[in-house]
């Protein structure tokens, strides 16, 4: 509100100064208002930082709105630490010890240091202070989290932190970001979380921008080709630093949600241009056009991003779908691997059985040919042969069944959304067949060359048979022809050796590719297992969150019940205090009555009527006190522990001090509560201030002689009542 008020006042002052025609006064007033605006912003953020705990709990929405408008540069370091709760971490004390250790990722970190913010003054010089502190922070984290180690995209986030704060504080903030902001899962070697983010973002594009989604699919333009850097570096490698820093402010407050929002807003703004481009054009547009669209300021982009519909529940649902798909793919791959292993074992068994069958057949033939073996031995060999043939037939049947299972599993795998594994196997088979065809072609060429050489050799022999009959010149020509033939033979041998070398090279490359495919599949299996562990840990976190929520609700219910009990006790204490005050008022009225009797200021004619009225009032007050006490006795709520009422009665239960009853009547009438009660009898004298002073002398003797004995006797019958609080 202060910022908006100052901006309005600034505009009004500028307008008035322009109309006045004094440019010098206008510029001075504008600069003073700008400084005033900046000063108010500093005061506001300083107050927020000083009272952070209360502001974060009570005014969380207002803090988010202020962060979206931008954090002042000088407050950014402390506010980032407060937003991620990294201001007091025990790992900060271990930082100096970590720097003394050796990390296996040091060479990779050194190699990528020069690629991080190469145009920024703090990092562009080799072995500068910026590169050194960046290396220290990345090395320390690779030692803390050895599973993640080092990933190139993380260096840009650490570099931005180092632009705002010292290296120890930057290290603590980076550890918090990795642990609590899903960055650790993004930077793992498997990058399973990045695959999930790509799946969720692609589903958002399909929902909000269906035409652009169809265009991307038709051009085979995958989401990871342009959006992976958005999630890995939080737009730090996409936009200039001022715009990326504003987005990073919101990321510190709201998490990865802002990356989804900004990414979809960018696609909405550039949808018309992207629909007109092919794959290469779209890549060029993302790399060269989009980064400079908001050089004037990021406010337009941030406003557009918060007009994007983001449903957290739907994102959770998409996460479950992605986990289900990956789990099913992993199960299919495990099943196919098991069937292939069984198939290989069965083939080995069949080869072994074929060898045994051949050896038995040879032995049988040898035994039939030789006469010295008995017929029993021949029969035994025939039985062994029959058994071997039966086992071979069983093996063939089992092999056929396994092959059928493999075909069935491949069909099921082809129905899944992801056909990468089957496609890889088909590509490997095609490559092997192509290499085999090339080797056959090379072999045919070699055979043709050998035939040609043999023809040349036959001709050469035919010519050399009559060499001794030819003249010298002809012999010289023949010698040259012999040398030419020798050269051709050597050339053919060289070509044959070259072909053989190429064939060996192709075999080595094929073996290398097969080994790399095996390694890739093993890595994929490890990735799937890690994803399963991650899913189980996330499920465990969800259950813990539900347990904490149940405990919180139970605590709230207990607090409410305690508050209700306390309120009931307070109401009961108020009622008891009201009764005590009424009883005190009754006692005061009794004293006033006795003073009126003693002084004799009541005339006989008017006193009886007034006494009756007072008796009626006292009776009503007595009855109201009984009603209040009866209401207390039937209440099931516990009494207030801090107040105890002790009543002492003597004599009849019908007599109380009249002053308390009068007070009760007045208090009940003031509160608007009316009771219809029967009258009770009692005695009370008039106050001496209510009787005319002129009649006091004439009525004194009559009152004293006629009523003094009666009133004194009744006064003795009145009860004593005391209240102890």
Task: Kindly report the name of the CATH homologous superfamily of the domain at 190-310.
Answer: Ypt/Rab-GAP domain of gyp1p, domain 3
Low-confidence stretches: 1-34, 634-725
Say how many strands there are.
2
Over the alpha carbons, how many angstroms does the gyration radius reach? 51 Å
- What gross morphology would you assign? elongated
Q: SSE order, as H and E?
A: HHHHHHHHHHHHHHHHHHHHHHHHEHHE
Sheet with the most strands, sense and barrel status: 2 strands, antiparallel
Number of helices: 26
Mean pLDDT: 75
Strand content: under 5%
Q: What name is given to the CATH topology of the domain at 190-310?
A: Cyclin A, domain 1
For this structure, what is the CATH class of the domain at 190-310?
A: Mainly Alpha
Distance between the termini: 53 Å
CATH 2nd-level architecture of the domain at 190-310: Orthogonal Bundle
Class computed from helices, strands and strand pairing: mainly alpha
Helix percent band: over 70%
Spatial strand sequence of the major β-sheet = 1-2
Account of the 3D structure:
There is one protein chain. The chain is mostly helical and 725 residues long. Among the domains are: 87-181, putative rabgap domain of human tbc1 domain family member 14 like domains (Helicase, Ruva Protein, domain 3); 190-310, Cyclin A, domain 1, CATH 1.10.472.80. It has 26 helices and 2 strands. The protein has helices spanning 2-20, 23-50, 52-58, 60-69, 76-83, 95-100, 106-113, 129-144, 154-162, 167-180, 183-187, 192-208, 210-218, 224-233, 241-254, 257-269, 271-275, 279-289, 299-305, 312-369, 375-414, 420-464, 472-599, 604-633, 658-670, 696-717; strands spanning 646-647, 723-724. A two-stranded antiparallel sheet has the order 1-2. Helix 12 (192-208) crosses helix 20 (312-369) and helix 16 (257-269) packs across helix 19. The longest helix is centred in the C-terminal third of the chain and has 128 residues, at 472-599. The model is unreliable at 1-34 and 634-725 (pLDDT under 50).
């Amino acid at each position: 509100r202060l910022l908006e008020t100052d901006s309005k006042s600034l505009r009004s002052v500028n307008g008035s100064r322009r109309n006045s025609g004094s440019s010098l006064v206008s510029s001075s007033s504008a600069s003073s208002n700008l400084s005033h605006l900046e000063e108010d912003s500093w005061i506001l953020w300083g107050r927020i930082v000083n009272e952070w705990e209360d502001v974060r709990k009570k005014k969380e929405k207002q803090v988010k709105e202020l962060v979206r408008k931008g954090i002042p540069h000088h407050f950014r370091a402390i506010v980032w630490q407060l937003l991620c709760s990294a201001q007091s971490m025990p790992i900060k004390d271990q930082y100096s010890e970590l720097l003394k250790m050796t990390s296996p990722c040091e060479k990779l970190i050194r190699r990528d240091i020069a690629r991080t913010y190469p145009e920024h003054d703090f990092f562009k010089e080799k072995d500068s202070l910026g590169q050194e502190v960046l290396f220290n922070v990345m090395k320390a984290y690779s030692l803390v989290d050895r599973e993640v180690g080092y990933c190139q995209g993380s260096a840009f986030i650490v570099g931005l932190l180092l632009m705002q704060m010292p290296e120890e504080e930057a290290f603590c903030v980076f550890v918090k970001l990795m642990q609590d902001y899903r960055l650790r899962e993004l930077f793992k070697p498997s990058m399973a979380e990045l695959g999930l983010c790509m799946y969720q973002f692609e589903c958002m594009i399909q929902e909000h921008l269906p035409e652009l989604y169809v265009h991307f699919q038709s051009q085979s333009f995958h989401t990871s080709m342009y959006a992976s850097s958005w999630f890995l570096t939080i737009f730090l490698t996409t936009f200039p630093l001022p715009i990326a820093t504003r987005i990073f402010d919101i990321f510190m407050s709201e998490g990865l949600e802002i990356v989804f929002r900004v990414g979809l807003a960018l696609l909405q703004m550039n949808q018309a241009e992207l629909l007109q481009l092919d794959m290469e054009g779209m890549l060029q547009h993302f790399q060269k056009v989009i980064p400079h669209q908001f050089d004037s300021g990021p406010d337009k982009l941030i406003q557009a991003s918060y007009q994007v519909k983001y449903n957290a529940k739907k994102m959770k649902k998409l996460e479950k779908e992605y986990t289900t798909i990956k789990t099913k793919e992993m199960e299919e791959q495990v099943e196919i691997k098991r069937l292939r292993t069984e198939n290989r074992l069965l083939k080995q068994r069949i080869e072994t059985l074929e060898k045994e069958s051949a050896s038995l057949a040879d032995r049988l033939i040898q035994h039939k040919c030789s006469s010295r073996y008995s017929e029993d031995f021949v029969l035994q060999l025939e039985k062994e042969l029959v058994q071997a043939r039966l086992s071979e037939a069983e093996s063939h049947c089992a092999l056929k069944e396994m092959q059928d299972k493999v075909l069935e599993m491949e069909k099921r795998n082809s129905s899944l959304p992801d056909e990468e594994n089957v496609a890889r196997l088909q590509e490997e088979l095609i490559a092997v067949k192509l290499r085999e065809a090339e080797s056959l072609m090379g072999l045919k060429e070699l055979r043709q060359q050998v035939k040609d050489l043999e023809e040349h050799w036959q001709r050469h022999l035919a010519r050399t048979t009559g060499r001794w009959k030819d003249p010298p010149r002809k012999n010289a020509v023949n010698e040259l022809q012999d040398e030419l033939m020798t050269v051709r033979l050597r050339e053919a041998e060289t070509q044959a050796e070259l072909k053989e070398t190429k064939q060996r090279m192709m075999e080595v490359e094929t073996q290398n590719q097969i080994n790399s495919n095996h390694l890739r599949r093993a890595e994929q299996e490890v990735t799937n297992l890690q994803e399963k562990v991650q899913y189980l840990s996330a499920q465990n976190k969800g259950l813990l969150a539900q347990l904490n929520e149940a405990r919180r609700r139970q605590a709230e219910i207990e607090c409410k019940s305690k508050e209700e009990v306390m309120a009931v006790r307070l109401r009961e204490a108020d009622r008891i205090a009201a009764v005590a005050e009424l009883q005190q008022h009754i006692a005061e009225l009794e004293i006033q009555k006795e003073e009126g009797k003693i002084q004799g200021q009541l005339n006989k004619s008017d006193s009886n009527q007034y006494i009756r009225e007072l008796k009626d009032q006292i009776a009503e007050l007595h009855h109201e006190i009984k009603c209040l006490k009866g209401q207390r006795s039937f209440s099931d709520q516990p009494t207030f522990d801090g107040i105890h009422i002790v009543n002492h009665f003597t004599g009849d239960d019908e007599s109380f001090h009249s002053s308390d009853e009068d007070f009760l009547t007045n208090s009940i009438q003031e509160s608007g509560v009316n009771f219809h009660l029967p009258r009770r009898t009692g005695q009370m004298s008039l106050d001496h201030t209510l009787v005319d002073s002129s009649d006091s002398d004439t009525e004194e003797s009559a009152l004293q002689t006629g009523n003094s004995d009666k009133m004194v006797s009744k006064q003795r019958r009145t009860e004593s009542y005391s209240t102890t609080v």
